Each structure stands twice: as C-alpha cells, then as structure tokens.
What does this fold into?
Amino acid sequence: MSAGHDVSWQRFVDHNKLVLDGRPHRIEAEALRTQTGCEPRLLARYDSPDDLPRCLREAGYSILPLRHGEYLLAPGELCCAVPSCRRTEPWTTHLPFALETAARGEGEAQWIDHAFNTGLLAHFVAVEPLYLTIRGRERTGSFAFRLGDARVEVSGVQIEVDAGYEGAGAVVLVEAKMGRPRHINVRQLYYPWRHFGQLAPHKAIRTVLLTYDVGSTRYELHEFAFADAEDPTSWRVVRSVGYRLYEPDQRRLDELLGERRPRTSMVPQADDFNRLLRVLEVLDAGLERPDAVAGEVGFSARQAEYYREAGEFLGLVQPNTTWLSPAGRELLRASPQRRRELLARAVVNSWLVRDLLASGEPITRARLHAAVAALVRRDGQPRYSGSTVVRRARTLESWLRWLADEVGCFRREGGTYLPG
It folds into this structure.
C-alpha cells in the first residue's frame, strides 16, 4: 500500500480511537471517505500482506467488506502465497482453425477467453462441456463465517468474478491476474465460492486462479479448495499446472533492428512487462492523474509513474505525456506472438541498448551500471546515484535476460550478453 494510504489509515485509527488489541471494529465507508479524503474501495483493496496499511499489518488485522458501505477490521491472515508451478506442459489446441482475433485487446477477460476457447481450461478442471454463465459484478446473498474469534456476517457485498462456467455437476469460478502474483487475498476466492454455493447447492463449486505472463505467453492455473466452509483460512491448493500455448519465437538481432528511439536522460525502473501493459491499458482508457492511474492498476503512484516512464523510453508513450503513441496502441491490440515481437523490437531499438550495441563489445553489468551513472540532468548534475543506479541498471538487465531466454536475439553467459 502507498505511503499516503498508510498515513490515511493511521489518521483514521487515531481519530476514532480504535484499539487494535484483537477486538474487531466495524467501520462505515462514508466515515472513511470523509475523514481521509480517499476512496474507501481503494483504501480497502489489498492482495498481499505488504499492501495492508502498516498500522493494521503490524497489529495482525485484515480488512473485510460486510455489506454495502460497511467494513470490518478483524485479526486474521487472509493473504496466501501463490505456489510456484513445478511443471509446464505444452498445450496443442483442438480448434478447427486459428483464432486470429483472439487473445488481444485489453484486460484479463481476453486471456480467460483464450484459455477457454483453446480447451485449456476444460482440460485443467477435467469438466466438459462447460458453458460461460458468470462474468462481472454482482452482490452476494447472506452468509457467515469465522475469522479467529470473530463471527463475520456478510450480506449484499459486491463481488466480481472474472469468468464463471457451469457444467453438469460443477461451477468453475475463475479469478485472473496478469503476471505472476506472489500472493492473493483469499477473500477474492472465498466470497464468490460461498455465494455461488448458495445459488447452485447441488453442484461442486470450484475456484481457479489463472495467471498469464505477457513476456513468455505462459499460463499458470491453480485450483483452490476450502476444507471448512465457515473458515476462509482453511484454503488449500489442490494442484497447480503451467501451460505454454506458444513456443518461444526465436529471432536474430538483425531481424529486430529498426528505427532507433530518441535519446533521453532517463532510464526506467520497471522490470515487469505485465505491469507495463496494465499501465498502458489504463492510459489508453483516458486516465491521466497519477493517483487515478495508481488506483486502477493497484500499486503506488510512484510505481505507476515508473511504468509510464518505461513506456516513454520504449516509444510506447508520447514524450512527457500520458498519451499512447501509435506503437503503444499497436502493442495493446496485437496477438500474443506479435505482442512479444513488438516488445522485443521496442527494447532492442531503445537508444541505450543501441548505444551499447554500437560499441561492438559484450554488454556486461558493469557497462549497464556505467551507462546509467553517466546520465545527467539539464543542470549537469548526475541524474541517478547510489542504489538508484543499481535499480535502473537491473531493469535493463532483466529486459536483456528476457531477450536472451524468450526471443533468442542475445545469448547469456552469466552476467554478460552477446548478440545471438
């Protein structure tokens, strides 16, 4: 959670004299909005323990919606670590023809639809046929559960299901995430599981976390189950499998070289292509203010600006604006394999990578650090120093590593990168 939200929550707790000693506290969303000046929905959203406001995290509390306009602060841990997939299976679709317009556009829905259309999702859950019956937001019925010593009663809470499918004996609920999250808030799985268990009591309700990585075009699917219907912390991961729909599309460096990006005095700190894509989607939707962008993407305004800078560095965002360039719009609307190629071209033709290549020497960590440290501001002072140089150089190295592992236009020898 951002430092600003930490301050807002601490102010709210102090103003209302809330004692975080293990007792639960009901709070009104309107009071939260009035006293902090922030949107309650954003203040209450978190996916990992680090996203919780410091005052609640240190006291061992979680935030739970109870009903429209009301939240509960209660002790208990609702974030679980997403396990790693120990195996990756290739997946050959059984489609009678290629879907040329699939897996493109914006948002998680495209990746779920592609997994469903190719038969991957039905294969993972071993349920056929499946029919799409659920998508989007709705309000729950009434149900209760335990969190530690607190009894929690929920009624009419807004939930959002990215996609839900019904088979003859099961309902499969899918929660989708871009990239590979380290944690997930179990409530995102538990509330829909309870809700649809009431709507379809004679069918098995199965919950699946689906993740998709833009850089590798790799899916990971994790099925969660709850051993005790009235205890959201009784979750367990039934199984996890990774799938690749596309093998890495190997390209030579000379196939990717093109128009060089204009030189700037900035190097980004943004090593996750999934987050970059998410920021581009939000900018494409017309959001401009850093706090608004941060609210939509789910991380701090500073991180959102880092990824806007990365888009500018790669020629995907117009200089000193929040407007996508033609290349940025093309990237958003491209197919998975084409998107990977466009990302590779953007990195290879960035001014700094082209400068490093022009010398004809291997690209080493030392050269990356030296290139970042050499950048200066308009007043002639160093643009970056200390640990900032290390972090910015690390972003560049992560991009080169991706080019070596996924694209093949470099080969990697330890911390040295040579044209492939």
